[in-house]
Predict the 3D structure of the following.
Amino acid sequence: MIANSIGNLAASPTLLALVVAPLAHLRTLDIAVIAIYFAMVIWIGFYLKGRSNTGEEFFMAGREMTAWIAGLSFVSANLGSLELMGWAGSAYQYGILATHWYWIGAIPAMLFLGLVMMPFYYVCKTHSVPGYLDLRYGGEARSVAAIAFAAEMILMSGVNMFAMAVVMKVVLGWDITFSILVSSIAVAVYVGLGGLRSAIFNEVLQFVLIWGGALLVPILGLIQAGGPAGLKAKIITNMHSDSYFHLWRDTGHFASNPMGVHWTGIVLGLGFVISFGYWTTDFLVVQRVLAAHNLRAARMAPIIGSFFKMAVPFIVILPGLLGLVLLQNPDGSRRQLVGEDIVAACSATNGSLDNHAACSAAMAKTNLPASEQQKVLSGAPDSELHTYNQALPLMMVRYLGPGLLGLGITALIAGFMSGMAGNVSAFSTVWTYDIYKPLIKKNGTDSHYVLVGRLSILTGVIVSIGAAYLVQQFHGIMDYVQALFSIFVAPLLATILFGMFWKRATRFAGFLGLLLGIIFSASLFMWVKLSPAALASVALSPDAKPMAENVFRALWAFLFSAIVIIAVSLLTRPRPVAELDGLVYGATVLPKEEPVPFYKNVWLWAALAVCIFAALNILFW
Amino acid sequence: MHSSGIPIWFFIGVLLLVYGLMILGYGVFEFATGFYPPAVELTSLHTPIWWGCLLAVLGAFYVAKFRPGRAGK
């Protein structure tokens, strides 16, 4: 999910100092493909402006999305370009283990949202996840969640914007300011005009573009590698290990797999806390499902999304694995990608290394052949190092000619822009309904709140641009911004799960569990940040790697919040059960759904998703 | 989505149709002239022709099925 993949790109700013030549050169046809995409999204924004006049239309897309549109938008909101490039790079480093973030790190939570949680979100007609907390626990918990979420969204938007500009600089040689301005103006126009409906339209569009632009890479790569069997044989020959093809076999010990994780962390930390926290409580994705036109569509949307989610590794993980055996240097030898830190340590100016000692030390950490290391250390002009995160663009450049390359680049741009659009549209709703309305102006008219929403999108984009330039100046900030999600998600999950499934949970317990949980989670983060050796304590093993920290920190934060909620609830007076109708399991009479043919039954499709999920895990055990 | 004007599928159809025709056109040019971009692999498979065709056919289908005035029928 998002925490790692963005983290992988966190060091990208360091690349700015050492860009030698862009990876790809666009031709006129490619530029035309990109220009047509921009024209289309602006057209959609203007077209939808007339359909986004009321608060319900602007913030909730009129609640008239079909299950397919809500489902595609739901899964597309998490399919940004940082994810695509970051996870392709992770697959290059860790092999198929990276797929956990797409399968166990998503599918169970998506099905749980559709089958169990969606009725409560939908029946109470909340505009947002903090809005649900307001109804269930009261204004204190809502305010904590809303302020943390709004800050996270706007800062993430800035980080995404900057990361996109860096990628465009590295891949195409585009100027940073040009990329930031063009993308932010386009997003401000189409979301500001069309609201959530416009954001959802563009997410569905992006989803199609990503498949249209990226699907060719694994198809052509597999042909060249000699099919799956050829790929496997080549990887075993090159890497001297078959760990790259196993999801679970080597997770019995931290040191047995290249990711440095243990299966308990994958199942409990990733599969439960992080995954459920993101897919069931992060308003960025839940907002898409809340826009469905009826309860059945809202329940079906995440289930439809789960099938597409299971397919995404084909265009993300497979290109990373193919890159391991197919990428070549100009002299025909195998090209080995390296970490961002290695590239940064070996930056060169005018053909000579900036810091020979640092580069020499960095080279010693790599598996590059001695001849390649010598070439890098000599500062030779053709000794370009490429990072793991460039695996996908490098594969695109390898197979996609004029027009097709433009389509692939358009898919990446669309992914970035819809990510930003998702951030600012969710920010706008939470700002307007969960901060401005309850805390600043309670009795405004509907049109007043729509105006506030439009202005907050404009403000959000401007603040995001500021955040993007702040990150450019102070690269260290990026780590902290990216940590916001992982710090916030576990306590929020505990608060919502106890609120939704335990009638006894009280107002004060919800507020305190959320607030103290966030503080606890942030403290764990800072502990490891200030004292890296603490990772062994947080992840329970001296062999744990940074990837393990996120999952275990989330697990401890969830347990901490749960203990606080239970303890405080038992000491305080609960709300009468009658007040919990529509909010809590066991106190709610869910509306009877119209009878539908068996092939439209949500449980049938969920069961099919479970079968495919289980089969994939067994197949790649 | 159908109840409020042009469905998203129509926009997607237009985009795929235009992209498909552009890429197909380039593929035909490549095939006719024998001029292939030097750094691109597997050009012998004539990917722009069949991928462009696929995108164009898919786009044409969506444009026809979801064109304004017909949506919801």
